[in-house]
Amino acid sequence: GGSVADFKVADLSLAPFGRKEIQLAEQEMPGLMALRREYGPQQPLAGKKIAGSLHMTIQTAVLIETLAALGADVRWVSCNIFSTQDHAAAAVVVGPEGTVDNPKGSSVFAWKGETLEEYWWCTEQLLTWPDGSGPDSIVDDGGDATLLVHMGVEYEAAGAVPSSAEDDSDDHKLILESLRRSLASSPTRYTDMAKSIIGVTEETTNGVNRLYQLHKAGKLLFAGINVNDSVTKSKFDNKYGIRHSLIDGINRATDVMIAGKLAVVCGYGDVGKGAVESLRGQGARVVVTEIDPICALQAAMDGLNVVLLEDVIADGDIFITTTGNRDIIMAEDMAKMKHNAVVGNVGHFDNEIDMAGLAKVPGIERIEIKPQVHEWKFADGHSIIVLSEGRLLNLGNATGHPSFVMSSSFSNQTIAQIELYTKREEYGVGVYMLPKHLDEKVARMHLSAVGAKLTPLTKVQAEYLGVDENGPYKPDHYRY
Ligand code: NAI
């Protein structure tokens, strides 16, 4: 391939280290490697411009290079200001065939520790190819790229960008600024862009929620594939992934002993269940908060105390939010915590922990222990330790989920992108799940690597169950 036209990463000289880790990851990502072998010769993504906004890690590097191996022209940003692994970003720009002096990989705009302004600048670059055109499809994680396009179209139709945002988050203000500039220089940019986008494949629970909300409001502009709710995504990445990466983040950030501590996990969904196992595995005493009676009952039957935050606020040593909801731990809660209690979030956005409120507490002092680890000292002299400024701590303080589980998630992503391009007539405006046979295919691709031998279903058994011998083996309503 030719040289990379444009990119912005922290340090291109980190590429050789990144390449070595990518090679280690490839061995641990059998699904992605199998898809390269299966679809490489057909090139189903040939010439397709794919824009990805998803944590720029080593695992994501293997996804990017898989999409490129199937023919795609890929641009990438991270979907979080702290989640980029700079050696991964550098290696993707250099590419498997390039050198640091002559990079030949993909255009990446991502570095660890972006400001929010830089984050939205990167997202603008993501959507603008060197010839001025936009993407043919999006890979999104949390929906920020999709959100920018949709807001752009809305304000272009209105001919103006509102002077203040409906929510007062810094993100929203920055999006409005970006769109104000865009409207002034090219008033139909996003409208034209949206027309040529065939769809988005969305990675996470929060992003999928946004897609369903957009569709319900009649505002969705293209197809959305809900990758999160493939069983081989949410029941694996969200659960087993966090089981691995939550304590990794806590350990690298604080190295505090987890055994014996009282850990409070807010939310007992897929991520919450993994978080609880992670902490219990270290010997913590774990309690859970929930709003959903089904998940609360599950937690109780799993042997956990289901409590109100206010009842454990003064006793908890470690507080972890996993809800995907807002306003879970407020400043007044943090004021009541014991000295050096650790507070962190693994839900997608940074509004689970009230960081804005914390900064406004009279007399509070913020002391940086190291990047992404802050002591907040209250006027009465007691402190709490906040990880990754309230953003995803497993990616901010550690390196996110390990390769093997991400192979499962990203195999779904790759298959979803292939679906969009090869079966366009089946994916009009709407939000879709991948068919179950593809979910089963992803699982199948990972079995031999974990030494699992699948029992073949006999013809007679298949008839007895009323399923095909080759699957799908379960009805769509089955919950696993
Ligand atoms: P989920 O919907 O399965 O679980 C969230 C749970 O939180 C639900 O059971 C809900 O009832 C509960 N909840 C909501 N409001 C609550 C409140 N006020 N108090 C207590 N509990 C409350 O969603 P899932 O898949 O577990 O995802 C959770 C979040 O984690 C999302 O933001 C998702 O995008 C993110 N995520 C993060 C990952 C990471 O690597 N850090 C990986 C995968 C997902």
UniProtKB/TrEMBL annotation:
PROSITE patterns: ADOHCYASE_1. Its cofactor is NAD(+). SUPFAM superfamilies: Formate/glycerate dehydrogenase catalytic domain-like, NAD(P)-binding Rossmann-fold domains. Pfam families: AdoHcyase, AdoHcyase_NAD. Keywords: Cytoplasm, Hydrolase, NAD, One-carbon metabolism. InterPro entries: Adenosylhomocyst_ase-like_sf, Adenosylhomocysteinase-like, Ado_hCys_hydrolase_NAD-bd, NAD(P)-bd_dom_sf, S-Ado-L-homoCys_hydrolase_CS. It catalyses: S-adenosyl-L-homocysteine + H2O = L-homocysteine + adenosine. CDD domains: SAHH. It comes from the Bacteria. Its EC number is 3.13.2.1. It is an enzyme of class 3 (hydrolase). GO terms for molecular function: adenosylhomocysteinase activity. May play a key role in the regulation of the intracellular concentration of adenosylhomocysteine. Belongs to the adenosylhomocysteinase family. This is Adenosylhomocysteinase. The lineage of its organism: Bacteria, Bacillati, Actinomycetota, Actinomycetes, Pseudonocardiales. The gene is ahcY.
